[in-house]
Amino acid sequence: MDSVATGPLSTSAAPSGTRGPSRGGRGVVVAGVALSDVGRVDEATPYTLHAQAARRALADSGLDRSVIDGLASTGLGTLAPVEVADHLGLRPQWVDSTSVGGSTWEVMAAHAADAIAAGHANAVLLVYGSTARADIKAGRRTSDLSFGARGPLQFEVPYGHTLIAKYAMAARRHMHEYGTTQEQLAQIAVQARANAASNPEAMYRSPITVDEVLSGPVIADPFTKLHCCIRSDGGCAVLLAAEDLVPDLAVPPVRVLGTGTALSHAAMSEWEDFTVSPAAVSGRAAFQQAGVAPEDIDLAQLYDAFTYMTLVTLEDLGFCAKGEGGAFVEGGRLLRDGELPVNTDGGGLSACHPGMRGLFLLVEAVRQLRGEAGEGRQVRRADGSLPELAVASGTGGWFCSSGTVVLARD
């Protein structure tokens, strides 16, 4: 795993090259994807959502459940993912319970792809489910979950430095360094909502304007309410498999071309530059392994708990230069029919955000590459053809971790 603890992050983009993974071994494909019930789900448990998503992803693939010999899951149960495996009736011989926040699922996908390529597993199920919204509504939770006050956090918690405050500080630094404006950040929320408008599974679909974003209640300066992700229920699953199983699939396979992972800081005081995220490292690694460059990408699914996350990730993945993210997101560039469609389901800002959203990024990327997004929502290239390349990049903690996955239509 790349580490960014010893020096500043690099933002250099990967050069174009021969397309294809350099990990060696068998090729890896996405065999099936699915969402559970999402949005407002008051009568389900997290286990129910895990099971729904897993069954639907398996059905999507057309494979028999007996091929699943690996499981990646975290965040549920005393012995995650043992309880999830037991609930699903699986006895995996390869398992991953990595927990690095929202980027967990891209990091797990990287681990699973390497395991399959090396022959340690044939088919790995990544599965997630959460009733974050329903739990608060029912009084099972009365506030946001605390990250605790031990270790490095003990030096920040006494000062009321909340999770959102950490992101807000980073956004303010970018604004100070590069002149990025609240209006530019608001453009990200507006375009996410416009993308959500054609997604029947999105929780919020009514159009919003920049003025409406800016006039909302301030949550943590410079973020108003609509700069922040929604709270929803939901789950999803992704089944990764060896290319040996492609003849048995019921759907066109999507290939995993490249992956990259990176860790940064635990305490904000140890973050060298608030304007550079660990996606600068994970993205470079993923593009290099895939043999492609940012300009080759047809669509991007990026973690967007806050609008600033989208902006800085676009910069760090190399879609624009450092400091130019504000100008880059203007003019509808992120819309489904824009120059670089981003978060085409509406993202965490409008579609769904039930806690750790990273796995949803992979589901949406695969659906778009397979041409299954539906009328009015499907991304197409300038010549009318389906997209060929997508990137999904997740961020965890307060820019503490990143995982990036490059996918290709077969």
For the structure shown, list the relevant keywords.
single chain, 410 residues, alpha/beta, ten-stranded mixed sheet, two-stranded antiparallel sheet, 12 helices, 12 strands, 30% helix, disordered N terminus
Written description of the protein model:
The protein has 410 residues and is of the alpha/beta class. The chain has helices at 46-61, 82-88, 104-118, 132-137, 163-178, 182-196, 210-214, 279-290, 307-316, 325-328, 347-350, 358-369; strands at residues 2-3, 28-35, 70-72, 94-96, 123-130, 218-220, 223-224, 234-242, 254-263, 299-302, 389-396, 401-409. The strands form two sheets. Strands 1, 2, 3, 4, 5, 8, 9, 10, 11 and 12 form a ten-stranded mixed beta sheet that branches. Strands 6-7 form a two-stranded antiparallel ribbon. Strand 11 and strand 12 (401-409) form a beta hairpin. Helix 6 (182-196) packs across helix 9. The radius of gyration is 20 Å and the shape is globular. The two termini are 27 Å apart. Residues 1-17 have low confidence and may be disordered.
